[in-house]
Amino acid sequence: MTDKGAYVREMFARIAPRYDATNRVMTAGMDERWRRRAIALLAAPKGGAILDLCCGTGDVVFHLLRTDPSLHVTGIDFCAPMLDGARARAPKEARGDATFVEGDVMTLPFPDASFDGATMGFSLRNVVDIDAVLAEIRRVLKPGARFVNLDVSKAPNAIWKRCFDLYFYKMVPLIGGLVGGSKQAYTYLPQSLTHHPNADELRDRFAKAGFADAGYVRLMGGAIAIHYGSNQTSPVIPSAAQRSRGADV
Ligand SMILES: C[S@@+](CC[C@H](N)C(=O)[O-])C[C@H]1O[C@@H](n2cnc3c(N)ncnc32)[C@H](O)[C@@H]1O
């Protein structure tokens, strides 16, 4: 694992016990509404197998199952304490089939074309290589299956962006310190947006990775965005591991 990966994993391990409460306070409960919107955009097929990448304490997984208990949802995350939180919530919150797997989304431990849809919430900013993760997601999706990504973004209106940045870069660390127990972690999280592509650029990265109909929906004046795209049927995509080995496909 890279230095960034190890740093991110250790940071989430620190904030895991109070992660859910801090989220609700930081977003005034709106994060739940955004997740529901993302799930509506996924339009998962009945009874489908869905992968939630960087599942953390399971918020998106449980929302998926509340929306449609016929789904089979697998959450993957590389931070064991976050997964512990998800597993502890599951008996109360999962109305159906939820499985949690420890692993790195840079090299997904799943066979090609094994999922009918994929989701990711508030995490793409944290991965080491966005393009590698998008390629991995395509690899494990069945032809035509959709991927939906919910995350903080860069609002296009300069005045609104300044207001949001003030909140995100100044208030979030304070709330993170008071409620989440780690001001340092919640200082890193906003900074992960600084070098993240803006919404148009990210849509173009989806398209470049081979997602058909790549697009996005803006929420909160563009401070939040939901990107989506469908897995094109061809060509065969090499996994991150195959690419790093330079394997032929
Ligand atoms: C901000 S939390 C989001 C959790 C959840 N998706 C949600 O919506 O609340 C980010 C999560 O991404 C995980 N994560 C970051 N990089 C990862 C990677 N390369 N592989 C697996 N999990 C990763 C972290 O451990 C953390 O649980």
In short:
This protein has 249 residues and is of the alpha/beta class. It is built from ten helices and seven strands.
Descriptive labels:
single chain, 249 residues, disordered C terminus, 10 helices, alpha/beta, binds S-adenosylmethionine
CATH class: Alpha Beta
Helix content: 40-55%
Q: Give the number of helices.
A: 10
Low-confidence stretches: 242-249
Q: From the 3D structure, determine the CATH topology.
A: Rossmann fold
Structural class: alpha/beta
CATH-wise, what's the superfamily?
Vaccinia Virus protein VP39
Strand content: 15-25%
Ligand kinds: S-adenosylmethionine
C-alpha-based Rg, rounded: 17 Å
Side by side, the strands of the main sheet go 3-2-1-4-5-7-6
| CATH 2nd-level architecture | 3-Layer(aba) Sandwich
Structurally, how many domains make up the residues? 1
Overall residue-averaged pLDDT value = 89
C-alpha end-to-end distance:
25 Å
Major pleated sheet? 7 strands, mixed
Number of strands: 7
